[in-house]
Amino acid sequence: EQARPSVWQMLTESPADMLIVLGIATSLGAAASVWLAWWVKKQTLGLEPGEIVGLVEHREAMLHGIKEGVVGLDQQHRVTLINDQAATLLSLPADAVGRHVEELDLNERLVDVLTGRAEGADQIVLRRGRVLVMNRMPIKRDGVPIGSVVTLRDHTELEHLRDQLDVTRTTTETLRAQAHEFSNTLHTIAGLIELGEYDDVKRFVTRLSDARGQLQAEVTGKVRNSAVAALLIAKASQAAEQGVALRLTPETELGDVDEQLAADLVTVLGNLIDNALDVFRGHPAPDQSIEVELRTVDGRVVVRVRDTGPGVAPDIAREVFRHGFTTKVAEQGGQRGLGLAITRQTCRRRGGTVDVSNANGAVFTAQLPIAPGVPA
């Protein structure tokens, strides 16, 4: 049996043109290998495979270990990356990666921030009882946009602290209003004494005492919860300094409620009264008054706040509870348009509602179940 020729024999016995073709092919292959190695090294930024694996492991550890939420999006606003904190804060499903943000059951405000329709730094978003601060940064490669990264922080605790500071501020404003009122009263009494009108002094003091006692007696007689009653008395003094009369309706009757419902009522009632007072700051009227009604109907506490201002235009009635909506100029660079949004969130969290209508002024009506229900 004849032995098969070796590769060397085949090469030496091949025609000259075959050797030329083989040489060219070998050269091209070597050149292609060199170019491919250069291209791969360029794409991997000069990193070796082991270094790339280490970077990926470090990236995953950092991404899921930080307290801030991180969401990556492509140009079509599909989720490309999400860490554990973001999934928790936004209540995203496990299959969120690869889906468009509008498919993820997110509210309009949140979608606007994620897609860049709402521009600006430190955007505040409300999401299922949380107050989130979000920032969006576009990503470019060689000057071409390829997506964006959104970071988010949970500021719920800070907002609670701010609410406590607001309570302190309200107390301070109430004390200031009472001090101003007391100063005017003393000046009046001093003037009457200088004139020798002692009988008028007695009648004046008696009338003031009766008026103050009547307000407190009316509030505490109709509202059994001390926190809600204290808020109403404080807001009445604050409104009086502004020249606004705050009064309860004859139908008002609220028994004692649990601590959580009382806290929610203070939030809702305080924001609605503040909103009414803001109306009069921008639109002074001859008869400036706020009417408050609190009563229990079919297992719900109904809160109704009516003002004698210009009312709410029908075309914006649905927008007033959206975060960021306001007809006022921001004061001292602060966030505006958050009070009514928080009011709606508080109501929905208990399974309640809040809406607005017009009746010789704006009428805001909130309904909060006495027993918390499924969040709306």
TrEMBL record:
Keywords: Kinase, Membrane, Phosphoprotein, Transferase, Transmembrane, Transmembrane helix, Two-component regulatory system. SUPFAM superfamilies: ATPase domain of HSP90 chaperone/DNA topoisomerase II/histidine kinase, PYP-like sensor domain (PAS domain), Sporulation response regulatory protein Spo0B. SMART domains: HATPase_c. Its EC number is 2.7.13.3. Residues 177-372 form the Histidine kinase domain. It comes from Thermocrispum agreste. The keyword Membrane applies. One of its GO terms (biological process) is regulation of DNA-templated transcription. The chain crosses the membrane at residues 20-40. The keyword Phosphoprotein applies. It catalyses: ATP + protein L-histidine = ADP + protein N-phospho-L-histidine. Signal peptide: none annotated. This is histidine kinase. PANTHER family: SENSOR HISTIDINE KINASE DCUS, TWO-COMPONENT HISTIDINE KINASE. GO terms for molecular function: phosphorelay sensor kinase activity.
